[in-house]
Write a structure and sequence with these properties.
42% helix; Trna Endonuclease, Chain: A, domain 1; 267 residues; four-stranded mixed sheet; 17% strand; alpha+beta; 11 strands; single chain; 8 helices; three-stranded antiparallel sheet
């Protein structure tokens, strides 16, 4: 489903929940509404009970409870009115939004599509185009790539194979050991480079597989420092997993992280 539809549906759900919450507000409804007047830095409150009543009954601060109830009642009425109006607009949008502009291109017959350059690429085309890009893989010890993935490539460890298969299963476009130039001009090869299709963001995924080894940990810290200096850091565009001899890769946790970040079937 188009991400725009997902956003609209999430907004609809939020509005429906809020409208129900407002409707359940069973505090005693007072007749009239609150008028707030501010003169020379002093705020005064008045209870207005009729159309012809332009001034209203003055409410001293001893009647704070009445003032708050009137304010809440006024807010409730206005909130429900505007929320229902917005909900109606969203419903009308969903009824009419059947053919995204991108479909103008994708619905062309193949012979005509081959002659045309699209102005907007669909998510599927973005993913295919990104996935098809070629690059020079990591030249470091290629003979150690002995573990097969479902996509038909070789990786360096069983854990990397599990991660690759999970990414592939979720439909997330990825490159394995794709080069990235660091701030110092050198190339690094993150284990996985993923594309968040909906937002067109590139996310790097590192797996640290020997965290009980002191030398490995020091190199990992140095790599993370270089990543940060190069604008790649957790919370922005980097995710990672890790394991030790007695604490293997948390497969369920890794899968949950990917689903929450990318959505199942992101591509």
């Amino acid at each position: 489903m188009n991400e725009l539809i997902n956003i609209v549906n999430r907004r609809r759900a939020l509005l429906e929940k809020a409208i129900k919450l407002a409707a359940k507000d069973e505090k005693e409804q007072l007749v009239g509404h609150l008028r707030v007047s501010k003169t020379r830095g002093q705020t005064r409150y008045y209870k207005v009970t009729g159309v012809s009543d332009k001034t209203g009954e003055y409410l001293s601060m001893k009647k704070t409870d009445v003032i708050k109830r009137l304010a809440q009642s006024d807010y409730k009425k206005q909130f429900i009115k505007t929320a229902e109006y917005e909900l109606n607009l969203l419903d009308r949008f969903l009824v009419n939004y059947k053919n995204p502009t991108e479909d103008t291109y994708t619905k062309l017959i193949p012979e005509r599509r081959a002659l045309v350059t699209p102005y907007i690429l669909s998510d599927d085309l973005i993913a295919k185009e990104w996935q098809s890009k070629t690059f020079k893989p990591n030249p470091y010890e290629p003979e150690k790539k002995i573990f097969d993935t479902r996509r038909g490539e070789k990786v360096r460890s069983k854990s990397e194979a599990i991660i690759a298969d999970t990414i592939y299963e979720l439909g997330i476009p990825y490159h394995y050991e794709c080069p990235v130039k660091m701030v110092n001009g050198k190339l690094k090869y993150p284990d996985f480079t993923l594309l968040k299709v909906r937002t067109r963001e590139v996310i790097y995924f590192e797996h640290f597989g020997y965290m009980d080894d002191e030398g490995y940990r020091l190199k990992t810290m140095e790599k993370m420092d270089l990543y940060r200096a190069s604008g790649i850091y957790p919370g922005k565009n980097l995710i990672f997993t890790y394991e030790t001899e007695h604490n293997p890769l948390d497969i369920k946790g890794m899968r949950k992280m990917l689903i929450e970040m990318f959505g199942e079937g992101d591509a």
